[in-house]
Amino acid sequence: MKILFVAAEVSPLAKVGGMGDVVGSLPKVLHQLGHDVRVFMPYYGFISDKIDVPLEPVWKGEAMFQQFAVYQANLPDTDIPLYLFGHPVFDSRRIYGGEDEAWRFTFFSNGAAEFAWNHWKPEIIHCHDWHTGMIPVWMHQSPDIATVFTIHNLAYQGPWRALLESMTWCPWYMQGDNVMAAAIQFANRVTTVSPTYAQQIQTPAYGEKLEGLLSYLSGNLVGILNGIDTETYNPAEDRFISSAFDAESLDKRVKNKIAIQEETGLEINRNAMLVGIVARLVEQKGIDLVIQILDRFMSYTDSQLIILGTGDRHYETQLWQMASRFPGRMAVQLLHNDALSRRVYAGADVFLMPSRFEPCGLSQLMAMRYGCIPIVRRTGGLVDTVSFYDPINEAGTGYCFDRYEPLDCFTAMVRAWEGFRFKADWQKLQQRAMGADFSWYRSAGEYIKVYKGVLGKPQELSPMEEEKIAKLTASYR
Ligand SMILES: Nc1ncnc2c1ncn2[C@@H]1O[C@H](COP(=O)(O)OP(=O)(O)O[C@H]2O[C@H](CO)[C@@H](O)[C@H](O)[C@H]2O)[C@@H](O)[C@H]1O
């Protein structure tokens, strides 16, 4: 099948959060499974520092009264064609934000649609989040190009209809108050990134005011669990960490703990449980719960805490101030740094993710892959990826709590702190977490079924595809 991925972020070229990881890794697996997958993204100013981009564009077009040029390169370390949408509005300073954000990404979507109509015509455009949400609306008039729209985060819904109408053409049939709502109505298929979140967004608690629409269209909505790029996120081969290790050589892991303690100014102490957080510091991630229990948790236990993230200024300030109360025990790094995030996954003992809502979550998967035990609130994809630790039956992969309450989060953290003292059991827990299947292969199979469905074919895998997926899954570890 010919599939064009369109997104605002593609890792490792431009990444703010998990969507970038998905768009940077899923196409590789679909390509391995024999599909002609290509990727279309903005040509941010910093991309030419990371890969070679030819000076001559492959195509020039016009959208929203602006000229643009599309440059062709390859997704790093692959031969997957990468199309870069070039216009001065996509500069080096930012991916998101700014007063012209709604205009910028609507223009980008319009450019992608023009590109698909006039230069490389895919059978399917796979769109990601509101930034690409107008594409399904426009493609509605092109029955030979189907669309799949993936919701990575329903909280961000893009510009409202009146603004859209003032910026660009909205076809007469377009309905929906904002871009996200319109995309949900017009995509041939809507997916989100875990089965539990697919259910939750049909309820008022998680639907962000679109629950009515989502439950009305629930027959067209499917939750497919994310995977991670198991080749780049591999503790046995990761060149960004101090000491490579795998599930059979966990004794080597402690060097990473000492290294991250040294790097971030924590006391060198291999016995203190080191809690890690790597996240966008926004309401979604449960940072307010962390702030509420931190004083008590740090006083009650001898744990250490490292937080890596950027986001809302009030969270950044509060965390920074708290760190000054626990010198040597709490480190806050207010930056976005992929290499450092890997060192946190590889060095911390537990990974805290008390999300208010979580479409899937990739950080907990990366943490588990690096033997760092997740403590999660059971919501969205965290329910589907982390199971209760049961030391007696030697089952489960992490510590979980249900209610979004400080006490419940505190209790889960104390349980983990107590569990951490039983080294032999802890090691088995780490091995189980590391042994879970984080690969994209099974989920890529689910996407292939969705693609076949929107092309009007039976939604099933051929025996050959099944066999290939089984082989790849078995080989990745
Ligand atoms: N300061 C920092 N420095 C370096 N790396 C950092 C970082 N802060 C975050 N990251 C990285 O960004 C990614 C975060 O991915 P998540 O899926 O956990 O959350 P996010 O909310 O961004 O994604 C949204 O989209 C994804 C993809 O569908 C869903 O899994 C998720 O639930 C949804 O909220 C991880 O790769 C993490 O390592």
Structure commentary:
The chain is an alpha/beta fold and 477 residues long. It folds into two domains: 2-228 and 440-475, Rossmann fold (3-Layer(aba) Sandwich), CATH 3.40.50.2000; 250-435, Glycogen Phosphorylase B (Rossmann fold, 3-Layer(aba) Sandwich). Helix content is 39%, strand content 17%. It is built from 18 helices and 15 strands. The strands form two sheets. The chain has a nine-stranded mixed β-sheet with strand order 3-4-5-2-1-6-7-8-9, sandwiched between helices. A six-stranded parallel β-sheet has the order 12-11-10-13-14-15, sandwiched between helices. Strand 3 and strand 4 (66-74) form a beta hairpin. Helix 10 (287-300) crosses helix 15 (406-419). The two termini are 28 Å apart. The mean pLDDT is 96. Bound molecules: adenosine-5'-diphosphate-glucose. Adenosine-5'-diphosphate-glucose binds at residues 17-19, 21-22, 152-153, 193, 226, 278-280, 308-310, 336-338, 341, 358-363, 366, 381.
At CATH's second level, what is the architecture of the largest domain? 3-Layer(aba) Sandwich
Describe the largest sheet.
9 strands, mixed
Helix content: 25-40%
Derived from helix and strand composition plus strand pairing, the structural class reads alpha/beta
CATH superfamily of the largest domain: Glycogen Phosphorylase B
How far is the N terminus from the C terminus? 28 Å
**Strand content of the residues, in percent?**
15-25%
Question: Order of strands side by side in the largest beta sheet?
Answer: 3-4-5-2-1-6-7-8-9
Structure summary, number of beta strands: 15
| Bound ligand species | adenosine-5'-diphosphate-glucose
Radius of gyration (CA) equals 22 Å
The CATH top-level class label of the largest domain: Alpha Beta
Question: Count of DSSP helices?
Answer: 18
The shape, in one word, is globular
Would you give the CATH topology of the largest domain? Rossmann fold
Arithmetic mean of pLDDT: 96
Total of domains:
2
Taking pLDDT < 50 over at least 5 consecutive residues as the criterion, the unreliable ranges are: none
Pathway: Glycan biosynthesis; glycogen biosynthesis
GO molecular function: alpha-1,4-glucan glucosyltransferase (ADP-glucose donor) activity
Domain Glycosyl transferase family: 267-405
Protein name: Glycogen synthase
